[in-house]
Description:
81% of the residues lie in helices and 0% in strands.
Amino acid sequence: MQIKEQRFKALFLSESGRMYKAAYILLGDEDEAKDVVQDIFAKLWTGTIPLKEESQRTYLLTCVRNRCLNIIAHRQTQQEAIRLLTPEAIAEENHDDEIVEMVNRYVDEKLSPQTSRIIKMHFDEDQSYKDISNSLGISLSAVNKHIVQGLRKLRSTFKDKEA
């Protein structure tokens, strides 16, 4: 076994349990918590995440916290988008297909072309942030920014129409 593998295995054995507990506390879901830990260790293995020997525990827990916060924010964005953009949900809630048409027209006409395209790719075509990022050649944070801004504009525009 190579030295890198031995160090990696030792790090996994010593820190993965603590990382899992932190992720589970934040997310409340066993599978998602396991995924967070696995993602972080996969990035460590490939060298995507640099790790300094003297601050590994703190850094790994910070990675867990940040990844969990991103997941929570993504959940909230998805729930809000589903509430605002799913034609079935809007029609059911409002009993009015006109609202669906207004939302779609707003996305097409009032949002920037890039934001409109990203909103449609994510919600109409069910593409992940990563797929959109790869397809358009932009960063994940740019995809997130467009979706958050688009939803914020939709929310403020249609706030009065929900009642």
